[in-house]
Amino acid sequence: MPVVDVDPDELRYLTGHSEKDDDELKSDLFNLGLEFEGWTEDDEFQLEFAPDRLDRLSVEGVARSLRYHYGDDRGVEVPNTNSADWTIEVEDQPDERPYVTGAIVRGLDMDEAALESLIQLQEKLHATMGRKRAKGAIGVHDLTMLKGDSVTDETGKSITYTSADPDEATFVPLDADAEMTPSEVMASHETGQTYGDLVADFDRVPAIYDAIGLFSFPPVINGRRTEVSVDSRDLFIEMTGTDQWTIDHMCNIVCYALAARGGQVEKVDVAYADDAPGEYAGKTLERPDFSVRTKTVTHDRIESILGVSLDSREVIDYAERAGLDATETESDDGVAYEVEVPPYRVDVIHPLDIIDDIGRALGFNSLEPTYPDVSTVGGRHERSRLEDAARDALVGLGFEDLLNFHMINEAENFERMGLSVPRTDEQASGGNREQAVGEAAPVTIQEPYSEDYTILRTWALPSIMMVLENNTHRSYPQDLAEIGLAAGLDDSENTGVAEHRTVAAALARTDASYEDAKARLQALADAFDKDLETPPTTHPSFIGGRAAEVVLDGESVGVIGEVHPKVLVEHDLELPVAAFEFRLDALE
C-alpha cells in the first residue's frame, strides 16, 4: 500500500481548520480510508491508503478530501485555465515512448513545504501510476529558464519532444557540474544508473529541446538549467510515456495539487507530427484535459449496497460531499443519477465506486447492522471447513500460518522461482507438454496501479519465499505455511480462468531436507486418511534428484522437494529450504 508523509500543520493550513489537533485529524483521516502508520523523524504523519486514490499522494490531495469531508467544499471542482501560449512540437520521437503531455502553472508562492510536497508527489506517481517511470515520467521545470522557439503561426512559443543520439547530445543534468551525453549519464550518474535501463536499448533516446538546447532527458533526468527551487514562480510540467491516458491523468493530479497552492493553470498545445506513431498522428491536443466524466447509478442499487433508505436529496447531498455532482434522472430500472466525476479521480471505473464514495460521505461507522431479509440460516461452506481443518493440521505440525496477497508480479511468480513465463496462447489451451506446478499462464491485470501486483499468482510458494526473504533478520528455524487462492488461464472454463485453493509450506532451517518436508506431508495426508505417494520428478524450482510429485489417492496434485540453490540466492537466503505445494481439494 502507498505510504505518504504529510505534515499535520500543512493539513491544518490547507484545510483552514487550525483548531483540529493531531488526534482529531487522525480520526477524520481514518474515516476517509487513510490509516495512520506512525511518525517520521520530522514529526509528519505517515499515512497508508488504498492505491487507487492516487489523488491523495500529496498533502494537497489529502487536504482536498478533508475539506469535502468537513463540508467546506461541495461538488466537482475544475480549475480555471488560461489559453495556451506554449506548444510542445512532437516529431521524430522514439517509437517505444511516443506520447507526451504538459501544462504550465503560474503565480506560485513556493516554500520548502510546497517544494517537498511536489517532489514527493512526483516520485509517488512515478512509483505507482508511472510504473517506476516505465509507463509515465514527470518533468517539472522553471519556466523562466526556458527559451521557446516561435511556433508556425508566430503567436506563441514552443519546445520540441524528439529523439537524440545518446553519444552526441549534451546537457548538464541535475546534481552535476559538467555537460554530459545521455550515454555518460546512464553510465556514471547515480540517477542515470537507476533509470537508464528504461531507454538503454533505444537507438535514439527521448529528448526535449528549447531554443537553447537539450534540457530534459526523459524518463531519466532533467537538466540543471531548469531546476525548480523555492524561488520558482512559474512552472512548465511535461510528461512522457507509453500511454497517453496515463500521463494525461498524472498531469491532472499534479495540476490540481499546484492549483491548491494558488497556482494558475495554463493550457499547452501538444502537436503531433503527421507521421508520429500512435493514434494521435497529425493531431493537436489541448492539455491538461480537465474534461468531466459521467457515470450512471440507480437509486435502488445505492440503497441495496449500503443497506439504508435514502431520498434523492440525500443521495445528491452525499455525492456532492464526496466531490462529485449528481443529477436525478429516470432509467429503465427507475430513479437513477447521472454522476459527474472530477478529472483527478482515476479510480472511478464502475458504479460501485460511486456508491463507495456516497457511503463514505454518509459514514460507514453510522450504518447499523441488520439481518438479511431471507428465510435461510447461514452456515459454513464445506470448502471452508476443509480449509480450516487443513490449517489446524498444519499449525499442529509446527507451521506458522500466513495470509499473503493473491496478487503478485511475473518476476516473483516465475523468474525468481526458476520458471520461464509461459506463453499465454500455448498454456491456456493446454499446450503440448505437461505443466509443472505453478507454470499455468497467469491472469493479467489490465490496468494495474502498481508493478508489484500485475497478475494473480499461479501458486503460493513464491509468496512464502518472499516472506522468507523479508525475514532474514529473524531467528531460525522458520516453518511457514499458507492456504490460499491460485489461478491460471484455462479456455475450458466458462470464465476463461481456473481457480483453486492451494496448500503450500516451507521449512527454512540449517538442516532442512526433503525427508523433513516428506515427514510433515505424510503426517498431513494421514490426518485426512489419504494415501501418499512421492514418485521422482523434475521441477525448475527444486534440486534435481531431490524433488517428487505429490500423489494423493492415486492423483498427482503437487510437488515436494528441496528448493534449488539459484532460487535461494535469488531470495538472499543462506540456508536450505524444503517445501511442498498441492491442491487443497485433494484432501476432500
How would you describe this protein?
The protein has 16 helices and 26 strands. The protein is globular and about 85 Å long. Mean pLDDT is 92; it is low at 427-433. A hairpin with a 2-residue loop joins strand 16 and strand 17 (334-341). Strands 4, 5, 6, 7, 8, 9, 10, 11, 12, 13 and 14 form an eleven-stranded mixed β-sheet that branches. With 588 residues, the chain is α+β, with helices and mostly antiparallel strands.
Question: What are its keywords?
Answer:
single chain, 588 residues, alpha+beta, 11-stranded mixed β-sheet, 7-stranded mixed β-sheet, 16 helices, 26 strands, 27% helix, 27% strand
Shape summary: globular
Radius of gyration: 28 Å
Number of helices: 16
Secondary-structure content class? alpha+beta
> How many beta-strand segments?
26
Largest sheet: 11 strands, mixed
What does the average pLDDT come to?
92
The low-confidence runs, each spanning 5 or more residues with pLDDT under 50, are 427-433
Helical content stands at: 25-40%
Task: Summarize, please.
The chain is α+β, with helices and mostly antiparallel strands and 588 residues long. 27% of the residues lie in helices and 27% in strands.
Would you spell out the secondary-structure blueprint of this structure?
Layout: E1 3-6, H1 8-15, H2 22-31, E2 35-39, E3 45-48, H3 59-70, E4 81-90, E5 99-106, H4 112-127, E6 136-142, E7 149-150, E8 157-164, H5 182-188, H6 190-195, E9 205-209, E10 214-217, E11 221-222, E12 235-241, H7 244-259, E13 264-272, E14 284-287, E15 293-298, H8 299-306, H9 312-321, E16 325-331, E17 334-341, H10 351-362, H11 382-396, E18 400-402, E19 407-408, H12 410-413, H13 424-428, E20 455-456, H14 461-470, E21 478-489, E22 497-508, H15 514-527, E23 532-533, E24 542-552, E25 555-563, H16 565-570, E26 577-583
Parallel strand pairs: 4-8, 4-13, 18-21
Antiparallel strand pairs: 1-3, 2-3, 5-12, 5-13, 6-12, 7-8, 8-9, 9-10, 10-11, 13-14, 15-17, 16-17, 19-20, 21-22, 22-26, 23-24, 24-25, 25-26
Helix pairs in contact: 1-3, 4-7, 8-10, 9-10
